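Consider the following input, taken from an annotated entry for GntR family transcriptional regulator (Metaplanococcus flavidus).
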Amino acid sequence: MSKPQRKLPLYLQIKRKMVDRIKDNEWVPGDPIPSESQLMQSYNVSRTTIRQAIRDLSNDGIIETRRGTVARVKQTPNEEMQNPGVLHHESGDKFSIKVLRSKYAIDQHFAKSQLQMEADEEVYFLERLRLADGIPIGFQQLFTPAHIGEIIESEAASWFDIFPVLGMNAIYYSVIKENVTATLANQYEADLLGIMSGDPLIDIRRVTLGIDNRPIEYSRTKYVPIHFNYRIEIGH
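Applying the prediction step yields:
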């Protein structure tokens, strides 16, 4: 079992702090923002984290970046921009992961179709429990192309969310598509989650596209409703 994880990815925490500085008029439209090195020192984070926060702010239209020039504030975010990003609100304080199994396979046909992979290509398959305060709250099956699996598999028990890990390896998302429905737990899921077979679960299916608009991740996560509050905030 992993050590407790941050609920919100680090780059999103930094992004929020930068948004607050703009909203407080510390940085106003037209102003250059501090350099990457200055931001790294100010927030005590890596250059990768700063770059991903700036990239997201640029995608949101808050900061303007041009090659060869300093990044500048483009506009003051409105209230809907206050918490940009994708947020899953899971009940609890200390979050961790338990890996159940992982493998490379060619027989996961539905997942491969979601990832737009060829029939003979290998897909990386990861099955995990998501825990809050030591209590199982969700059952997750995650699939990626093999080259991404090679990046994430060695630390599958130490990351709660995939996006910071991908960002640290210069793999960024452009679009996240999620479908949220209700389902009933089968016996295997019930035993893992400490509930009864047939109990209701929140069923979230997600496809994540990279910056070239090709899928980089497909996942299906089933949550025990009492432990989960779901909210999504994307862009404007």
